């Protein structure tokens, strides 16, 4: 019976074993009292055990558990057995096979019986080989880590690296096999290692996923020794009963740099003097800085959310904004000056720079506008520019601006193959008006003249004032040469009208010189010289007219230059002489007077007439020295004749207006010179021209009066050719008038010149003046003059001007 029961039992156990083994698991059966383990065939197969290994396997089992797993497994088992063991025991751990390899197994067991006093008696369990699954798990983990773009290290709790992905390899510069197996300390800079060790220990004692000391600045070091900022994240992972740390390492060098830049930018943004406005793609303001508020008057709260049109002044055309947007859309950039309006309504000029920030897809993200108020700066610039380029009195371009324009017009004319005309205009009586009526009236006159000239030209032409009473006109793009003369005539006509200035009515005229580009000259300098020469030609033609530049003018100008050069040496080289021409007392034929006339014996050209070189000497101022020389020479001669021949002998000396105005009396005037020589003033008569009397300056009047006070007489030369009025003659205390030879040469009984001469003589006598007739060439003329009561005669009839030695014979 027992046997049958046992057999039945054995049969049922066999079936059960068979069933378990059929599933591929190894089965074991352990008796706590005998310490004997029964194991199935499959069990032995799994570990490569021999049949007899059945004996005492519990020791073998314990021995074969992986040292890393053993404590864990034994602890778990103890806990299971000490508890009520209501549910099965389960553990995963590594077991060594007899060939030394390791297998991962899942050990599931149940306590099937206890002793009477509750001690464990029998336990049955299965081992499932889970090596494959474990490997797969690990592989999957590695794959996940490998794919991470972040550098990842798998570190065990001792701090050794078990795995490093490609990113980590790249980041640290080590090869994969160099990293695996070494301590993470290698990747920590020396100075940070102690801290790092305590971090790791702290983490391991309480492993929870967390970023590692994010607030703390962490550094890592590459193989090449270079350090860099990192952010480290730690995630614990339990693999096979062990805690590992998945360590993510992020290189934040660039981020740090950006952060620093951002900080800097933010600082600049707040501190910068320029206003900054940031707008989004829809042109809504998203940020403004304090300077923006200072400049526009809008606070941040007021501005943010508004359209960027907030500051629009309405001063610009639609077209202006359209172009701005064109540029912004095309290049993302615009800069320029723009009139905007502050909150208080005040318009101001700003220098604005707009830049665009795009997102990763190239769409507009932000527009950043930076601007500063340049109103004052602009105003100052404008004033400076205005002052530098325009004449403040007339508002016309000044010399500088004129030069610029002429330069440009020359270029333009050159390109377009058209001509341009340059007009040089000089007022005829400006100095006189300025001197008699004062500078205030002179200024008004210039202003009015400027307006009248401007009124005669087209908009494209340029009228400029070079200074004083000199104006220029550039007539550009000329295709009809007749138009030049028309403009010149128009200007003369418009100036001919009376000027009503501050209650005064006056008249003015101008002389205009005209030159053409490219016909007369190719450069600015030449054009100016030509126009100037032509203007002088117009003056010589009698003023109030215009004259074209001609090549003969050019030649004359050259000749003049030569003449000036020669004249400079003439005095030093004794080429100058003084001739004397007697002035005969008509009633008696006596000679007590003579006119001193200068002669220039040129070494090459022979005698050069005074009419040729005196005006030039006047123009360049040399007349002062020449005149002084003539004066001294004549005085010396006269003083000697007074002693030798005639004690009342008197010499007439010509004195040009230029001498009156230019000579400086630093070493005394002529009167002083006479006094110094002990000679009376009666030794000389000063011959002046009518023009001088028009010079109303005080200098002239003072000098004439000084002569009178010194007893020096004054003769008015070439009378009848100028504009002298009787009042002038009286005012300046003139002693003689010399009737111009143009009247004398035509003297005939009953002629108009006869009548005129007679009238002059009568009038002069009435005013207490004596009359000298010039250019008496015939006996008839002499007789007619005697009959008319003329006092003195001078002319070839009596004698030509002759050298002193010859003159002596006449005395
Ligand atoms: P002016 O003072 O009217 O001098 C008279 C001019 O008439 C002289 O010319 C003289 O030679 C000329 N003349 C005299 N009698 C006759 C005549 O019967 N027929 C003609 N056809 N001419 C006669 P000249 O010497 O050539 O001088 C010309 C001008 O040059 C002078 O005119 C005077 O204005 C100026 N001049 C001459 N010497 C001097 C000088 O030393 N200083 C200055 N500042 N001017 C001078
Ligand atoms: Mg004279
Ligand atoms: Mg004369």
TrEMBL record:
**EAL domain mapped to chain residues:** 560-811
Superkingdom per UniProt: Bacteria
Please list the residue ranges annotated as the GGDEF domain.
418-551
Q: Which PROSITE patterns match?
A: EAL, GGDEF, PAC, PAS
Which GO molecular function terms does the record list? catalytic activity
Which coenzyme or cofactor does it need?
Mg(2+)
- Residues forming the PAS domain are 137-181, 260-307
Which N-terminal stretch is annotated as signal sequence? none
Annotated PAC domain residues = 89-142, 214-264, 334-386
Return the Gene3D superfamilies for the record.
Answer: 3.30.70.270, EAL domain, PAS domain
Q: What is this protein called?
A: EAL domain-containing protein
Q: Which organism is it from?
A: Candidatus Methylospira mobilis
